[in-house]
Amino acid sequence: MAQLELESPVSSTTVQSLLHGRMYTLALADNIFHDSFTRKYTTYKIQKESPESFYPFVFNDIMGLDPDKGVQVEDVKLALKGHVKDGYRFKPESALSEEDQFYNKYPTANDKVHVLVCVVDVSRIHQMNKITVEKIWNIRQEASHLGIPQVAILTRIDEACPKIKQDLKNVYRSKSLKEKMEQFSADVGIPMNCIFPVKNYHEEIDLNNDVDSLLLSTLKHIINFGEDCINFKKSQSEC
Q: What is the pLDDT of residues 29-78, one digit of tens each?
């Protein structure tokens, strides 16, 4: 089962809405909370039609990377290695210790992360400060060392450009969005072909084909990256 490490619960909710064919609200989200809303390390399984059947991947939701009150970089590194148990409450002032009951001393392959996904509100890219950028670089270095692919999801693209808000099909025709993607790529080092612009379901009450199309494409690429990671590590262990 592939682990997809997310910064925001909104995207896991959006994907669940997409795969269920209806609006879904399992992952909590907050439209007015200014600090990171997520406090616990939470794993989301996506149920299929059968109550006991799930899709072969999970989302692990973490606290945001706020420079002062955000998640400790060391906690993210531990999560990548599978050392963080579900339900661990993040502490901005200190990282998880080996003596903590939520420290997983013997992680299995299913506990480890196979794709690191950085979820960013596109309207806040220009507000990213040096500390946040350094956190992302630090986490990416650890992920690269572990052989974990890294991608970014840029959300709220409809608010980044009037043309996109008018018609979501203009997403790859928008010069302003491309400039923001290029800026983010240059800041954190994630290649342009690993950055996916999407629109979340945050005000709609029904699903939309254009929104779904972008989400399905993004999810497909992420799952492919995860499978490549798992297959590569299997081949390495057999050598």
A: 444 334 445 678 988 887 777 778 888 888 888 888 888 888 999 999 99
Which residues contact residue 235 at a Cβ distance below 8 angstroms, ignoring those fewer than 6 apart?
A: none
pTM attached to this predicted model: 0.85
Q: Which amino acid, residue 161?
A: C
In single-letter form, the type of residue at position 197 comes to P
Low-confidence ranges of the chain (pLDDT < 50): 1-10, 27-36, 239
- Looking at residue 77, its amino acid is K
Whole-angstrom Cα distance, residue 211 to residue 104?
37
What's the pLDDT at 2?
46
Give the CA distances from residue 130 to residues 65, 76, 187, 192, in Å, rounded to whole numbers and listed in that order: 12, 18, 9, 21
The C-alpha atoms of residue 175 and residue 190 are separated, in whole angstroms, by 19
Domain residue spans of the chain: 2-238
- Residue found by looking up tokens 């506990």 in the block: 111
State the Rg of the chain over Cα. 17
The CATH number of domain 2-238 is 3.40.50.2300: no
